[in-house]
Design a protein that fits this description.
14 helices, single chain, globular, 10 strands, 3-stranded antiparallel beta sheet, 334 residues, 39% helix
């Protein structure tokens, strides 16, 4: 039975089962994030802090990520139940490497990845950056750099190592650097530089981001748990963006004492201002939305570049069984 048929059958069976009693024990779930607690994870923390997961029968533990943590490996080993994926490449790489993991939702409709330059340096467009040195991380080479090469003619000779420090950029007014629209621009502004910011998603980089990943085994055997986690997470994001974010912010700072109120406020505002979460398909289908068309188009563009074999089965990378149902969407927006 193909994955989507199996998932549909399981969900149909789930719908026929009577609701569980209020006395039913909560199901323990561990969700791993891709970095230390921050506003970019706010909806998940909001769902914990306001009891949204518990209302759906889950006791959720958020496990913070970091540079030395291999969450996909933990997910494959069953050490965690859900993982926060960074890009569409993650799920497609699972398929290529025959790892039975799948994206079940995409919280970010826009990847927050940006390139930043000093004002007045002549780097006032992405085409103007062609041939110029750019500070990027090793992970960029196999993700958004492929897009920049294909669309704007960037070459690998432009790459300079990004060491996750603002110092080289601040010291060189001709420098161009990667960043997240929700984070690095704020750090530079605090240091006295208001950078020129280019959100790659607004220039055609169509990767999903902050996906929720699970194993195909869990999707098939525990669709109720997957749906409960996805639904509560979506509700948490609506609450965080448009309600009182205070409960999540308090929990974020408890988990990550280095996080400041100013940084949280900047990140939350940037997510709203740039439509990182609630834009595009999410405006119609609800936060977490994904579509066949977008997955197919992204995969096709990467196949054209030779990143993936042409016979890669894209449908194994994702499932729409748990999204596009307008869960938590305010009535006025429906």
């Amino acid at each position: 039975m193909r994955p989507r048929v199996a998932v549909a059958a399981a969900l149909l069976l789930l719908a026929l089962v009577a609701p569980v009693s209020a006395q039913t024990p909560l199901t323990n779930v561990t969700f791993a994030t891709n970095w230390k607690a921050e506003a970019e994870h706010g909806g998940f923390y909001q769902a914990v802090a306001t009891g949204l997961y518990r209302k759906r029968g889950l006791e959720v533990t958020i496990r913070m990520g970091g540079p030395q943590v291999n969450n996909p490996q933990l997910l494959a080993a069953g050490a965690i139940d859900f993982n926060m994926g960074a890009t569409s490449f993650d799920a497609l790489n699972y398929v290529r490497n025959k790892i039975p993991m799948v994206a079940v939702a995409s919280i970010f409709q826009k990847d927050p990845q940006v390139l930043m330059a000093h004002p007045g340096a002549g780097h006032d467009s992405l085409p103007a950056m062609k041939g110029k040195p750019i500070l990027v991380s090793p992970g960029a080479r196999t993700t958004y750099w492929l897009f920049l090469r294909a669309k704007f003619g960037f070459t690998d000779s432009q790459i300079r190592p990004y060491v996750f420090s603002m110092a080289p950029f601040l010291a060189d007014t001709s420098a161009i650097q990667q960043g997240y629209v929700t984070s690095e621009p704020y750090a530079l502004q605090k240091a006295g530089v208001k950078p020129v910011v280019f959100l790659l998603a607004d220039y055609g980089y169509d990767s999903y981001s902050t996906t929720i990943e699970a194993s195909w085994k869990r999707v098939r055997e525990q669709p109720g748990v997957v749906r409960a986690f996805v639904d509560a997470s979506i509700e948490g994001w609506y609450s965080y963006l448009y309600g009182d974010p205070g409960p999540a912010n308090a929990l974020i700072k408890r988990h990550n004492p280095d996080m400041t109120d100013d940084q949280i406020a900047y990140s939350l505002d940037a997510m709203k201002r740039y439509g990182i979460v609630d834009s595009g398909d999410a405006k119609t289908h609800g936060i977490g939305a994904m579509t066949d068309a977008r997955w197919q188009a992204f995969a096709a563009s990467m196949k054209e570049l030779g990143v993936y074999p042409r016979d890669l089965d894209v449908t194994l990378a994702y499932t729409l069984a748990f999204v596009n149902r307008r869960v938590g969407m305010p009535p006025a927006a429906r």
